[in-house]
Amino acid sequence: MSIELSHLVSDLTPERTVLFFGAGASIPSGAPTVERLIKSLADRFKIDADGLSLKEISTLVEKKVSNRRELVATIRPLFKNIRPTGGLLNVPLFKWKGLYTTNYDTLVEQAFKLKAQPLTSYSSNFDFSQPEVHDAQKLFKVHGSIEKDVVDGVQSRLIISEDDYDLTAEYREKLYNRLKADIDNARLVVIGNSLADTHIKEIVNWAIRVNSEGHNHRSVTFVSYQKDDNRASLLENKGFQVTFGGVDEFFAELAKKAPESVVVRVATGDPLDAAPVLQPVTRSVVHALGSEDSNVGSMFNGWPAKYADIKAGLTFERSIVSEIDRDLDAGQFRHVVIVGASGVGKTTAARQLMIRLSGRNHFAWEHDVSAALLPDAWKLVAERLGSDGARGFLFIDEASSQINEVNKLVDLLHAKSLTSLSLVLVSAKSAWAPRIKSPYIYRYGREFNLRRLDGSEVDRLLSLVDNSGSIRALVEASFKGFSRYERRRRLVERCESDFFVCLRNVFASEKFDDIILREYAALNENSRNVYKLVAALQSAGVSVHRQLVIRLLSIPSIEIVGLLASLSDVVLERTIDQRQGIYGWVGRHQVISEIITRYKFSDQDALYDLISRVIEESSPTYQLEVRSLRELCASEYGIPRITDRKKQNVLYRMIMSVVPGERVPRHRLIRNLIRLGEFEEAATEIRIFESDFREEGPIARYKIDLMLARAEHSPGILDEDRVAILREATAYASTAISRFGDNKYVLNAYAQVGVRWFKYTGKPDVFDAALDLLREAEERLADPEISSMITRATRVFTAAPTVLDAADALEEVGD
């Protein structure tokens, strides 16, 4: 017996409800039905459509009667000028756990735009790489969108013919995997025109399979516009609920529910009021100082120093902090870049600086590293700061992982002449140096390299140990008895890292690695498996979260609480997005994660298997996992740690298959193919890249590298042929410079052409021209890496080489 629509809605909570719009769900708003689509195709192409499905008649049109362009051109006009009305306009008023649709129309997108609510829409696997706005509603379009198709020259398909279904099977599988995760502890409500629709049947079969696979029974309700008691009975026999009504009726009933609370935005005087979307992903330093509790034991065990720890005097100040603060106040530069190796205290130093800046009545914020940076929103904040005559500072940790967004923000600030917002960027030097940066980062900023402790820092650390009872209690057993002079000698000799590494390594009698490994050994086997997995993934740049761990280790959800309790000292869970059910898992410190990884994944095959499984099990519908796949390509503990380049290439290809919109794995694959001498394969990948996207700086650089490699290593050709290839490379490099003159790797590749040209012709003209351009870029961009390039290129050239390896040009990554 079907239930009443009012009964369905009475206990429905949008935050725990996934809406799935099946075919015909938007009929009340005038969208074309499946029947109308079939009739239009039959009339236009003179086909007897009796008994044919939409997929079948579309395949006939595409393959036998006409072509795809005509097929799409016939369908699109039917969707022209349709607008959302009635219940659809109310969809954006609620925060849904998820939104899915099998419809081609853009009615949901239009409704969100009309209500000025953020929406991220996915209609192909290329969309997985698009920027994500925090807390924006996500709409997954299972069958693509009427606006995008390959006939338009884009990598997206209107999924309508048999070929479309075959070619997009992996994309739809990713969406259904996401749907499976979304409806855990939630309700799935499928709204459609008819229970007889093939798409509804597809969802029914999927839901049956999901319920049979898991321990938890998923609650699924079908809302059908056309009353059909017989099919309703069949569905109810399978454990599903059925009710009759349409979108308008559904939302009319929902509107009767009195909301538990109404969010009203109040102007607080905080510049973030100009961009409320930043509130959930931004931490105010003032608020952190007033609300956090200090915990020296946590810091001693490797968790990062919090603002409260610094305020409580539990850290020693790094020398660069006062230097940066003084020069910022004097207006010598606007932006700050702090780089260094893992574990030298970059984050703590940056937080010490932010406290100083906040103390001078500047606004000081820290960006949540697990969330996407939103340049346009921060531009609005900068404008508000400027209009109020105030100044703000934004601390972005691990800035290299979001370098494109950082570059865009810096460019926006420069374009609008906004000096009110300054950036404090922190990154591992090995990850920061190769990245292409906005020229305005160094034009208006300065880089500081944090290294081992200097003499004054050692003295401050000793004073901290002497004067802080809580810290002295942690270290006195192994440090007791030495005079201050003797303690200082040992610190100077052995201290290369930040606060906690100093305490645990210098003050302890054991080797630091042994301390970490003993902690690992004390855990039970299940906890060890989770710990080493989290450590390996974190060190490789992966943003670990609960669902990813469950997928990789096949852990039942009911065991999660117990596991976290057993890992309370080494792994922390924090909420990233409660509505989406994303809970991040983080280890204590990058140095600790790298130690665990080095010992527990020393075998190359084990590391390869782990990374393979991570890629296979990844769900690109989560932006967190897309960023992780990107970082796997760049982190020294990720794919680059695999020594076999052919195995690396397999992993890069796997990532490209999962997220074809990502450029970094494509760049790395091309680079490896050139290094392996597989020139034809490299050229093919370059052509495919340009077909999917367009030519860009890294690809221009790899084109030059490919020509150099051919000139140097092609067997059996004469030197005059090598010179001809180099002449082609020179001409192309000159053209590329005119388009990508700010890309230091294109400039460096030009210099490499000059070195080879000199080798084969004895003429220095090409190298001299390239060196002049590098020096101009050094002055214009102020990037210290360009200075190093000039030094290396000059050294190689003056050595008058007779044997050169084209791979020399590929030492820097530059993705």
Outline the structure in words.
This protein has 38 helices and 15 strands. With 815 residues, the chain is an alpha/beta fold. It has a seven-stranded parallel beta sheet with strand order 3-4-2-1-5-6-7, sandwiched between helices. α3 packs across α4, α16 packs parallel to α17 and α34 (697-713) packs parallel to α36. It is globular.
Q: In which range does the helix fraction lie? A: 40-55%
Task: Measure the end-to-end span.
Answer: 59 Å
- Derived from helix and strand composition plus strand pairing, the structural class reads alpha/beta
Q: What is the helix tally?
A: 38
Morphology: globular
- Tell me the major beta sheet: 7 strands, parallel
Could you tell me the number of beta strands? 15
Query: Any low-confidence stretches, pLDDT <50, length ≥5?
Result: 258-265, 802-813
Strand order of the largest sheet: 3-4-2-1-5-6-7
Cα-based radius of gyration, to the nearest Å = 30 Å
Overall residue-averaged pLDDT value:
87
Please outline what is shown here:
The protein has 38 helices and 15 strands.
Chain-wise SSE layout:
Blueprint: H1 5-10, E1 17-21, H2 34-45, H3 54-65, H4 68-75, E2 98-101, H5 107-114, E3 119-122, E4 137-141, H6 162-167, H7 169-182, E5 187-192, H8 198-213, E6 219-224, H9 229-237, E7 241-244, H10 247-255, E8 282-284, H11 285-291, H12 296-300, H13 307-311, H14 319-329, E9 335-340, H15 346-359, E10 363-367, H16 375-387, E11 392-396, H17 403-415, E12 421-428, H18 429-432, H19 439-443, E13 445-449, H20 455-467, H21 469-479, H22 484-494, H23 499-506, H24 512-521, H25 525-539, H26 546-553, H27 560-566, E14 571-577, E15 582-587, H28 590-600, H29 604-617, H30 623-634, H31 645-658, H32 664-675, H33 679-692, H34 697-713, H35 719-739, H36 744-761, H37 765-781, H38 784-798
Parallel strand pairs: 1-2, 1-5, 2-4, 3-4, 5-6, 6-7, 9-12, 9-13, 10-11, 11-12
Antiparallel strand pairs: 8-10, 14-15
Helix pairs in contact: 2-3, 3-4, 14-15, 16-17, 20-21, 20-22, 25-28, 29-31, 31-32, 32-33, 32-34, 33-34, 34-35, 34-36, 35-36, 36-37, 36-38, 37-38
